Amino acid sequence: MLGFALRRLLSTIPVLWVALTAAFFLLRLAPGGPFDGERPLPPRILENLRAHYHLDRPLLEQYLTYIGGVVRGDLGPSFTTDDFTVAELISLGLPYTFILGGLAFAVAIVFGVITGIVAALNQNRSADYALVLVVMVGLIIPNFLMAPILQLVFGVTLGWLPVGGWGDGGPANLFLPVVVLALPHIARISRLMRGSMIETMNANFVRTAEAKGIGETLVVVRHALKPALIPVVSYLGPAAGYLLTGSLVVETIFGLPGIGQYFIQAALNRDYGMVLGTVIFYMMLIVLLNLVVDLFYAWLDPRVRYR
Q1: What CATH fold (topology level) applies to the domain 92-267?
Q2: Which tens digits make up the pLDDT trace of 199-208?
Q3: Contact predicate 284/211, CB 8 Å
């Protein structure tokens, strides 16, 4: 398994390099720059700034310099946030983003799996239709629209929850952002779980267990649950990445001090260093999460071997 993990990590290096190269040149070639504003800077100051951040050098030289820094673990400075490097800004926002994304991830797994199992065991009954209808609402309505709806209903109209801000990081402040992030993934996980559970419950080994007189609950827990979870686990790696990248928008809407706050401002201000640093961070995170999912297969399905 260790050899498989190392091969997978090495195989992702070209993918990361291509994605980083594309992001670098697209940012540089797009109109505008990090020092463009409503009031143009005096030519002398602009020249000094460009020289300080090496933007006066040829594009290829800038690219090679940046790649060399990334290889050494240096993501460079932020162009718009003085006295902070990109790595420092990411480390400041990372705990908030991880708390928000981790809670939403746990909520999505628990409610998605339970909803899918209940719907599958009540296939084509009223409970099945009702559960599918409820969870599909979270998939149909995008999070940038669901967030203000929940803010308006629960924060402004009913006054039950704060409409934004981190506060003390308590349940009241995190409830709405977590729900907004988790809803679409609850829908996807429940659909995957429902279809997989229906197929598993009709498999021969499950029918054999039922024929032995084992109760339905034990059949589901001991025999059907692990095989039915395999499609869900396949989705969990990308889902974790989607939750963390989706939190960029949710953090901005709810005014949370995560990476999303820095990334959105960097994108608006054309802060090359912060945008590229965030792209690198999320790419590496998604690669690691997908690797964890692949390794988790062996526990769910003994037939899987890594050679």
Answers
A1: MetI-like fold (1.10.3720)
A2: 887 777 777 7
A3: no
Phi and psi at 203, nearest 5°, equal -75, 155
CA dist., res. 135 & res. 297, Å (int): 27
Cβ–Cβ under 8 Å, residues 298 and 4: no
Say if residues 281 and 275 touch (Cβ distance below 8 Å).
no
Question: DSSP characters for 227-248?
Answer: HHHHHHHHHHHHHHHHHHHHHH
User: Do 260 and 97 form a contact (C-beta atoms < 8 A)?
Assistant: yes
Structural contact between residues 52 and 82, judged by C-beta atoms closer than 8 angstroms: no
**What residues does 77 pair with on adjacent strands?**
85
pLDDT for 228-250, tens place per residue?
Answer: 887 887 787 777 777 766 677 78
E-strand ranges in the chain read: none
From residue 305, how far is each of 5, 92, 296 by CA, in Å? Answer: 12, 40, 11
Angle made by CA atoms 288, 290, 293, in degrees to the nearest 5 = 110
Beta bridge partners of 85: 77
Phi/psi of residue 74, nearest 5 degrees: -105, 110
